[in-house]
Amino acid sequence: MTVIPSEIERFDRLSATWWHQQGPMRPLHVVNALRLGYVVAQMGAHWRREPSRAVSGLRVLDIGCGGGLIAEPLARMGARVVGVDASPGNVSAARLHAAEQGIRLDYRLGEMTDALNQEERFDVVLALEVVEHVSDVPAFLAAAAGHVAPGGMLMVSTIDRTWKSFLFAIVGAEYLLRVLPRGTHQWSQFVRPDELDATLAKQGLLPLERRGMRYLPWVHRATWCTDTRVNYIATYAHPELPRRKH
């Protein structure tokens, strides 16, 4: 079990606001717009595809899918998406919104070990803004890596455990500017990039790229940057060369 009960309770309370772009999830909507382009570009490059069909037909696992902010647009682009989340409220919100939009998605409630068959493999596994909310990061990452198909890829976005992340992601975002609810993050649960690399290396995944992200709360704008000491996203690949997806 890597789920933290208090985290599930908090997400359940916020679940009804997932798709309110001016609500508590506003920063996530801003970040998501930037991150989606990166995810799609990485998938297209890895599978050697034209941008217009970068994700079509790929089997994607979105771990900690929340209300479906990444899962839905990927499904619209033609990916076959499975979204997993341990929060009943999140899964209900995701299913409801997908039904309203007429989008077919496979949303499952529970941890990976419960919601997925052990033998299920995916071309792309996403763990976006979820690693810092679990109790056992190595166990969580090992489970995620176990669902990456040969030649597939894993993308993880999280927050570095530095003095700068404490000031910006907690003191600034939660207490001073209040763009996030207090208690959203615990500094001790943030993950250093070298810890991420070392853990996934044990699972046979090789690092491809790491990129920093900057969120400017006073203008609600997100941009890429070279500084990974607060938010960052890292891409890993199964060492076996991917079979070309048609």
Structure description:
With 246 residues, this protein is of the alpha/beta class. It is 35% helix and 23% strand. The chain is built from eight helices and eight strands; from the N terminus they run ααβαβαβαβαβααβββ. The protein has helices spanning 5-14, 26-46, 71-76, 88-101, 112-115, 137-145, 163-176, 193-201, and strands at residues 59-63, 80-85, 106-109, 122-128, 148-159, 206-216, 221-225, 231-237. The N and C termini lie far apart (37 Å). The mean pLDDT is 87.
Topology:
Blueprint: H1 5-14, H2 26-46, E1 59-63, H3 71-76, E2 80-85, H4 88-101, E3 106-109, H5 112-115, E4 122-128, H6 137-145, E5 148-159, H7 163-176, H8 193-201, E6 206-216, E7 221-225, E8 231-237
Parallel strand pairs: 1-2, 1-4, 2-3, 4-5
Antiparallel strand pairs: 5-8, 6-7, 6-8
Key features?
246 residues; globular; 8 strands; alpha/beta; 8 helices
For the residues shown, what is the average pLDDT?
87
Q: Structural class of the helix and strand makeup? A: alpha/beta
Overall 3D geometry?
Answer: globular
Strand line-up of the largest beta sheet: 3-2-1-4-5-8-6-7
Amino- and carboxy-terminal Cα gap = 37 Å
Low-confidence stretches: none
Oligomer: single chain
* Largest sheet geometry: 8 strands, mixed
Share of residues in strands: 15-25%
Can you count the helices?
Answer: 8
- Total strands: the figure is 8
Radius of gyration: 17 Å
Task: Sketch the topology as an H/E string, one letter per element.
Answer: HHEHEHEHEHEHHEEE
Helix content: 25-40%
